[in-house]
């Protein structure tokens, strides 16, 4: 029942907040904020009432809670929600960033607030659904459902208020990329289900059953490739990265939409949860390709970030570069790197979100996103430059911040299995420091290009940034707290996969 | 010819329709009264819909050699009847401002419905031919009903001529078939084909291809699709919801009936032709829809692609008969609800002289008419096949069939077509939510709030809600299909 609340509260609050706009202009934001806090409490309740340390590590999956309702029995589809520690961490991240996104949008979204929060809560519902879905059809359903409200968020509350055509183009681009990813995934899910049906004559979309499939290795390879492609489109990894920079550049200036974009860390989650466990026999066959793509996007993202003039595009390419590292870690077949993925997902989301908020602040004061038109802002604004220096440094992995721990664990873990790749990936830190310093130098140092009074930033934004900074430092200083929570799921996924590989080796002998 | 009571019961819906059309004729000749005629025809259609319930227990049944009613025909007939009822309701308010004779409209509609229902259940080529003519001849009149409107007469003439050509193709095909088989019932063709020599088989197949050509004409599939957009543009929107549903549903059910015999599907050439037609229709329909400025032309092209999706079912029919028929029903119900709410919404903006059919004039509709444009959004999402709408369930069914039977080429066509389609549909959707360019349209063109429109509004709202609910919980529809089975 608790799991059902997690989905139904944001879903209902989206409609309520849309309708409440007629009554009071401020009502929608309060309703969405309250509903997020409510589901946060629900999650905390789930977290405390479940015992994480009693599971056997070599047994996967071990859900803490499950909810199974019949949905479409014709196809063996169930409304099946389940939660384990990995999902809980992702949910906490979602709620945290969701609250921050609402706070960012608090006074900045001035037109059609009801519809904005309607879409916002729908996206959040979909994201929560993805993190706790245990039925492949339900997973796909939520995966698709977030696209439409996301499309509206980008196209209607875009950067450019007079001419909507560029933000509509960005939204179209996002939507078409996402749809290609979705359709490819639907095809591979159906292929998996029907192959399972052919072997066992059970038509089911249940994740727990499909885990133990014994399908032909060629078909499994194709299905695995389908999942791989659909996830890396959404991540995005380099050949499919075209939508992300437009998405960032055209989305609303206050940064709310970008933050939602960064809470869409569903693709690494999906790769981890689905690709790793559903296809343990073939996942390592694609590892070299995935590693290469990951490395390529690390360097490509860093290089392009260096050459951007638009500050938001710079952030977008930087996050592409980070995604490359996460991809390498996921395919590295090492437990320590897997733990690094968790930390890296959390901390890169937070630092990207913080940079987006800062760029929104700059846009608000100086009405430009062009780096070349900036310069010397250090003396023009209080506080903001120092914060952006901190977040830029954390983005490049300064010790003491979460990103450092993430990168360190990833590189350290990968070194055991793929040492060459780990060594090459280490060089990327140099590249990321180049673009981060370039950004800081061009924006804040040098001669002041605009002569205006020194500005004092909004108190609310300041507090948001302080909280984000504290979280990043917390992650950097005490990562073990987070690692403890997710430990059991991560290692059981790792052992589950290992077990399969070993059993195949044994049968071959 | 002796008809027993059971067969007579099976013909009950047709008899009621005939009685109600005769009543309409008599009422017109006695005293012209628009409301009474409209009431009679809606009442007759609703009664016909209810009599379908008696058929459930006695189907499947052969009525002479001409008609064959199956369980699924009941569903198809109900789709046709619902679309006729919706058309009557929509047209009533439209006809109030019509300057000439209003009452014959309902007569034409009833006759065309009768033809469509006969076509759905006919199993003999002669009855197929007669029903097609009965179905399409009144439609010429319906399209030309607002003949003072720009494009309307042109559309009617175009449809007249093309329909005549397709009928002549049909006759040519029938005569080739008759030359070999000597019998025109569909089951006999199957029987003959399994015994004839190769040369004769070729002649028979030529006949079948000719018949198929005529059907593709009527279903407006590539390469016989060129008339579609012009005729959609010229037809009043209240009629379009009928024109677009009933004819296509009826023809498709006949196609399903013909193809349920093995003789066609075991033939390689026909298989290739059908798969090409389906791929090209999907791609072309979605591709051309992107460039349209007129909202009715847009739907014309997108209906080409919808029928293209549906045609895929014919290719897998022999492997998985029951499942494909289920798919057809779900897809056609989706198509029905889409048509009712889409054209109903356009009809609310139309007056007697013309429809408002430019896409630009719907800009920013959401901010003045939130409920109506939410329904239009649901409709467009359902056309595109996005989750939480019935269209997605239909698409899911079709995609699962494609994958189950390994039709990879068609699968690629499906994917590309869908992605093209997304672009087109979302262009329309976002148009509803943008700021209106000038306040002129939204302020001056307020939908009249008179009581006449309330019934149309309720109908639109309900079909939109059906799309949503059945998309979230398709079990209701699936159970209905299983109940009838």
From TrEMBL, chain A:
Keywords, alphabetical: Membrane, Oxidoreductase, Transmembrane, Transmembrane helix
Chain ranges passing through the membrane: 30-48, 81-103, 115-132, 137-154, 174-197, 218-237, 286-307, 314-331, 337-360, 381-398, 418-440, 461-478
Subcellular location: Endomembrane system; Membrane
Domain NADH:quinone oxidoreductase/Mrp antiporter transmembrane: 133-432
Record GO terms (molecular function): NADH dehydrogenase (ubiquinone) activity; NADH dehydrogenase activity; ubiquinone binding
Domain of life: Bacteria
Ribosomal protein as UniProt keyword: no
Gene Ontology annotations of biological process type: ATP synthesis coupled electron transport; electron transport coupled proton transport
Membrane topology term: Multi-pass membrane protein
GO annotations of cellular component type: endomembrane system; membrane
Main location: membrane
Pfam families per the UniProt record, alphabetical: Proton_antipo_M
Subunit and interaction comment: Composed of 13 different subunits. Subunits NuoA, H, J, K, L, M, N constitute the membrane sector of the complex.
Functional description taken from the UniProt entry: NDH-1 shuttles electrons from NADH, via FMN and iron-sulfur (Fe-S) centers, to quinones in the respiratory chain. Couples the redox reaction to proton translocation (for every two electrons transferred, four hydrogen ions are translocated across the cytoplasmic membrane), and thus conserves the redox energy in a proton gradient.
Full protein name: NADH-quinone oxidoreductase subunit M
Lineage, uppermost ranks: Bacteria, Pseudomonadati, Pseudomonadota, Gammaproteobacteria, Enterobacterales
TrEMBL record, chain B:
Any one GO molecular-function label of the UniProt entry: NADH dehydrogenase (ubiquinone) activity
GO CC term (a single one): plasma membrane
Gene Ontology biological process terms from the UniProt entry: ATP synthesis coupled electron transport
Pfam families xrefs: Proton_antipo_M
Localization terms from the record: Cell membrane; Endomembrane system; Membrane
EC class: translocase
Domain NADH:quinone oxidoreductase/Mrp antiporter transmembrane: 122-420
Membrane topology classification: Multi-pass membrane protein
EC number: 7.1.1.-
Residue stretches spanning the membrane: 12-30, 36-61, 73-93, 105-122, 134-153, 159-181, 202-227, 239-259, 271-292, 298-317, 329-350, 370-394, 406-430, 450-473
Reaction(s) the record says it catalyses: a quinone + NADH + 5 H(+)(in) = a quinol + NAD(+) + 4 H(+)(out)
Keywords tagged on the record: Cell membrane, Membrane, NAD, Quinone, Translocase, Transmembrane, Transmembrane helix, Transport, Ubiquinone
Subunit structure comment from the entry: Composed of 13 different subunits. Subunits NuoA, H, J, K, L, M, N constitute the membrane sector of the complex.
NCBIfam families: NDH_I_N
Role: NDH-1 shuttles electrons from NADH, via FMN and iron-sulfur (Fe-S) centers, to quinones in the respiratory chain. Couples the redox reaction to proton translocation (for every two electrons transferred, four hydrogen ions are translocated across the cytoplasmic membrane), and thus conserves the redox energy in a proton gradient. NDH-1 shuttles electrons from NADH, via FMN and iron-sulfur (Fe-S) centers, to quinones in the respiratory chain. The immediate electron acceptor for the enzyme in this species is believed to be ubiquinone. Couples the redox reaction to proton translocation (for every two electrons transferred, four hydrogen ions are translocated across the cytoplasmic membrane), and thus conserves the redox energy in a proton gradient.
Family: Belongs to the complex I subunit 2 family.
Identification of the protein by name: NADH-quinone oxidoreductase subunit N
């Amino acid at each position: 029942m608790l799991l059902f609340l997690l989905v139904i509260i944001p879903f209902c609050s989206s409609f309520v907040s849309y309708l409440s706009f007629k009554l009071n202009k401020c009502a929608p934001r309060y309703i969405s904020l309250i509903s997020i806090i409510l589901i946060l409490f629900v999650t905390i309740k789930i977290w405390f009432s479940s015992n994480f340390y009693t599971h056997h590590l070599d047994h996967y999956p071990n859900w803490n809670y499950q909810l199974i309702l019949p949905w479409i029995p014709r196809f063996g589809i169930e409304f099946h929600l389940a939660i384990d520690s990995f999902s809980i961490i992702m949910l906490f991240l979602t709620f945290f960033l969701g609250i921050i996104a609402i706070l960012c949008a608090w006074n900045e979204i001035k037109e059609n607030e009801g519809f904005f929060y309607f879409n916002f809560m729908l996206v959040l519902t979909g994201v929560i659904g993805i993190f706790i879905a245990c039925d492949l059809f339900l997973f796909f359903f939520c995966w698709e459902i977030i696209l439409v409200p996301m499309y509206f968020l980008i196209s209607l509350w875009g950067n450019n208020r007079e001419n909507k055509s560029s933000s509509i183009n960005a939204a179209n681009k996002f939507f078409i990329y996402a749809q290609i990813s979705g359709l490819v995934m639907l095809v591979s899910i159906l292929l998996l289900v029907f192959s399972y049906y052919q072997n066992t004559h059970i038509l089911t979309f249940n994740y727990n059953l499909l885990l133990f499939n014994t399908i032909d290795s060629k078909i499994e390879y194709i299905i695995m490739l389908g999942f791989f492609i659909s996830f890396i489109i959404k991540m995005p990894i380099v050949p499919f990265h075209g939508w992300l920079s437009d998405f960032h550049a055209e989305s609303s200036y206050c940064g709310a939409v970008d933050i939602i974009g960064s809470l869409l860390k569903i693709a690494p989650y999906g790769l981890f949860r689905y690709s790793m466990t559903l296809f343990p026999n073939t996942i390592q066959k694609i590892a070299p390709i995935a590693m290469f793509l990951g490395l390529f996007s690390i360097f490509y993202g860093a290089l392009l970030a260096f050459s951007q003039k638009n500050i938001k595009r710079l952030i977008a390419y930087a996050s592409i570069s980070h995604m490359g590292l996460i991809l390498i870690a996921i395919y590295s077949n090492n437990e320590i790197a897997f733990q690094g993925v968790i930390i890296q997902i959390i901390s890169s989301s937070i630092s990207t979100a913080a940079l987006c908020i800062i760029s929104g602040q700059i846009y608000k004061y100086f009405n430009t996103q062009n780096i070349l038109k900036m310069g010397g802002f250090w003396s023009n604004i209080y506080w903001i430059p120092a914060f952006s220096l901190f977040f830029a440094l954390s983005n490049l992995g300064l010790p003491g911040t979460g990103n450092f721990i993430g990168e360190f664990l990833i590189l350290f873990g990968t070194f055991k299995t793929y040492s060459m790749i780990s060594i090459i990936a280490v060089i990327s830190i140099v590249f990321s420091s180049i673009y981060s310093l370039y950004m800081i130098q061009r924006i804040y140092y040098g001669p002041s290009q605009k002569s205006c009074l020194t500005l004092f930033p909004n108190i609310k934004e300041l507090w948001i940034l302080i909280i984000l900074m504290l979280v990043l430092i917390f992650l950097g200083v005490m990562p073990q707290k987070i690692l403890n929570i997710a430990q059991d799921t991560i290692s059981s996924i790792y052992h589950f996969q290992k077990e399969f590989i070993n059993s195949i080796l044994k049968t071959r002998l | 010819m002796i008809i027993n009571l059971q067969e007579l019961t099976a013909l009950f819906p047709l008899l009621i329709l005939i009685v109600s059309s005769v009543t309409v004729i008599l009422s017109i000749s006695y005293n012209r009264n628009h409301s009474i005629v409209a009431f009679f025809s809606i009442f007759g259609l609703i009664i016909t819909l209810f009599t379908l319930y008696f058929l459930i227990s006695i189907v499947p049944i052969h009525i002479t050699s001409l008609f064959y009613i199956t369980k699924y025909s009941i569903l198809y007939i109900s789709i046709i009847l619902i679309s006729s009822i919706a058309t009557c309701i929509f047209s009533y308010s439209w006809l109030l401002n019509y300057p000439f004779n209003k009452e014959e409209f309902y007569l034409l509609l009833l006759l065309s419905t009768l033809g469509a229902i006969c076509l759905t259940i006919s199993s003999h080529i002669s009855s197929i031919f007669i029903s097609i003519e009965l179905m399409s001849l009144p439609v010429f009149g319906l399209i030309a009903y607002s003949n003072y409107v720009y494009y309307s007469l042109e559309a009617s003439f175009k449809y007249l001529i093309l329909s005549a050509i397709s009928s002549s193709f049909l006759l040519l095909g029938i005569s080739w078939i008759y030359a070999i088989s000597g019998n025109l019932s569909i089951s006999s063709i199957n029987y003959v084909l399994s015994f004839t020599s190769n040369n004769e088989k070729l002649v028979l197949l030529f006949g079948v291809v000719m018949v198929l050509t005529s059907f593709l004409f009527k279903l407006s599939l590539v390469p016989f699709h060129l008339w579609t957009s012009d005729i959609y543009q010229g037809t009043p929107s209240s009629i379009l919801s009928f024109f677009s549903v009933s004819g296509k549903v009826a023809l498709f059910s006949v196609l399903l009936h013909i193809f349920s015999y093995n003789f066609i599907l075991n033939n390689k050439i026909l298989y290739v032709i059908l798969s090409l037609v389906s791929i090209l229709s999907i791609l072309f329909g979605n591709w051309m829809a992107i460039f349209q400025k007129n909202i009715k032309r847009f739907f014309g092209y997108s209906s080409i692609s919808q029928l293209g999706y549906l045609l895929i079912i014919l290719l897998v029919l022999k492997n998985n008969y029951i499942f494909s028929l289920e798919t057809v029903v779900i897809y056609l119900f989706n198509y029905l609800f889409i048509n009712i709410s889409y054209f109903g919404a356009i009809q609310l903006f139309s007056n007697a002289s013309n429809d408002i059919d430019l896409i630009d004039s719907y800009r920013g509709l959401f901010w003045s008419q939130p409920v109506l444009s939410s329904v239009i959004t649901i409709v467009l999402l359902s056309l595109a096949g996005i989750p939480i709408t019935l269209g997605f369930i239909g698409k899911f069914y079709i995609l699962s069939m494609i994958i189950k039977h390994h039709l990879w080429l068609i699968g690629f066509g499906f994917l590309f077509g869908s992605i093209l389609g997304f672009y087109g549909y979302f262009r329309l959707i976002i148009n509803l939510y943008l700021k209106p360019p000038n306040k002129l349209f939204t302020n001056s063109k307020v939908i009249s709030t008179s009581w006449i429109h309330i019934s149309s509004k309720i109908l639109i709202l309900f079909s939109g809600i059906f799309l949503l609910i059945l998309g979230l919980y398709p079990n209701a529809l699936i159970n209905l299909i299983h109940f009838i089975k």
